[in-house]
Structures are given as C-alpha cells and as structure tokens.
Design a protein that fits this description.
By secondary structure, the protein is mainly α. It is about 60% helix and about 5% strand. A two-stranded antiparallel sheet has the order 1-2. About 25% of the residues are buried.
Length: about 300
Amino acid sequence: MSSLSVSMKCPGRYCGLYEGQCTACPRGMKVNNTTEMCQPCTSAPETYEWLYLGFMVLVVVYFHMESLTRFLEKAYGECDVKSTTKWITVTLVETFLAALFTLLLSDPHGKLELYGCGVESFLDWYSVFQNPTEKFIETIYCDSEVVYPLFSIVYKFLGFCLILMILLRCWYKPTVFTTSSVYATLYFIPGIALIHGLLCGVIYYSFPYLCISGSLLLTAILMSEHLDDSTDIINNVKKAEFMSQILMYWVLHGYGILSIVTYQKLSYWYLFLTPLPTVFYVITLPFSIPIVQSMDEEIQDGHGGGRGI
C-alpha cells in the first residue's frame, strides 16, 4: 500500500484511491479512470459476458455427458435409453441448481441478477502482472479481481457442482457406474478450475471459436461413424440418438456464432449458418471416398468383362 496523498495520481493501471491511499480496490470495486477513486461495480454484465458464463456451464455439462455415456456403456454393455435418460436428468438438475445457487449468492444477494465491473482489455484478467514500481524501489500491489465477478463466480459454480453431486447421488444405490461417474467428476471439475485459473483471459476471447471448431470436429466424427454413403442418411435420420447428437452440435455451433455476432456487433442473420457444416458434409459425401468408388467401378467393369468372355 502506498502513502501517496489523495491529490496525487496513482501509478499503474489498476491502482485506485481508497481511504486516502493508492492501493488495490476491494473486491466488487473498480478504478474510475476520471477520478482515480475506487467505486462499486453496480452495472449488469453485458450479453457477451453472460454468454461466457453460459459457456463455462456448457463445459461442465459436456464432460458430465461424456462420462455418463462412457460408464453407462461399460455398466450395461450398450447405451441403455432408460438409464441414460435418468442420469442425464440428474446431471442437468445438479448443474441447474448449481447455477441457480451461484446467482442467488452473488452480488446482489438473493436476486437472479448480477453486478459486474466489465472487461475492457485482456490485461484485466491478469492484473497480478501489472503491479507498478514506485521510483524503481517499492512495488505497489494493486492486483485484484478487475473483471469481477467473472473470475470468482466460476469457482463458486464449480464448488456448488461438486457439493450438489455428492448430496444428490448419495441417495442412489452404490454401483460401479455411480462410483465411476463420481470419481470422473472429482477429476474433471478440478481440471476445469485449474485451466480457468491459468487461461481465463484466453478462454474469454476465444470461447466462440472453440465452440465452432469443436462442433465442426464432433460433427465430422459423428458423420464418418454413421454415414458410409448417401443411402445411410435416411436410415440415421430416423434414429433418435443420431438426431439428438446432431441437434446438440447445432446448438454448440449456433452458440459460437451468437457469441461472435454479439461481440462483433454483427447481423443475427449469421445464425442461419448453423446447419451449414452438416449440409455441406451430406452434399459432398459422394465425393469424399473416391478410392472406394473407383474400386467399385473396377469391380463392376471386371464382372461385366467376365460375362462378355
């Protein structure tokens, strides 16, 4: 904490005047660039910031779904529809309640609202590296949660996810599946917390592109596993599992497009591009395996030549 007087300007990007001294602003406050004073953050988060928080929720849901599918197949030998539906419902309830409690216990408390300080630049996420040095001697530590509450609220949400998972799943009969799914959650949630702590700023600006690239990759993998040729399209469209996965990837793709449109202030007409990767794959499917087609043609020509002899 520096002993600079109130009349002097505070050094550094994130040092503000609080109780007559230049220091880090308390949690929930941010430096006013005009007055240099620390003032409370009382504005609502922007749409892009809500989309970022929604993305963090989707990440948890995705890892839950992956672990559920994998362990259910091991437990039942195949993807049992009844068991899958039950555990997906339980997982979604856990995640929804975690998000609800996180909002209710955040400022302002007891309301489905959120007060935030906003994000102005990439450096706001890493204020710990922006501490100024006064006269090259004394370091003034002004690191704080400049992006309040976008950094801390994710940890609060992940904590509620763990607590609710333990409270809700303890009522079910212990099986290999329930034990394995709990252990998986105890691994991936701390992993998400670690990655968020290190790369929160990178994720904030890149999550729309992660959504789009992830949906493209997952769609290509799904199509390659289920569609060998154009005749398989109609058969797979009738399968609920296949269509549910396609719709899920469309939602992920549309979420990424919506985030980019919101951040760049573009036209919402770009959302109509959501099914484009799937349509493109289906249209170009006959041309994606030219070697197999040429081999089929050679076999047919061979049979025709044989009959002519």
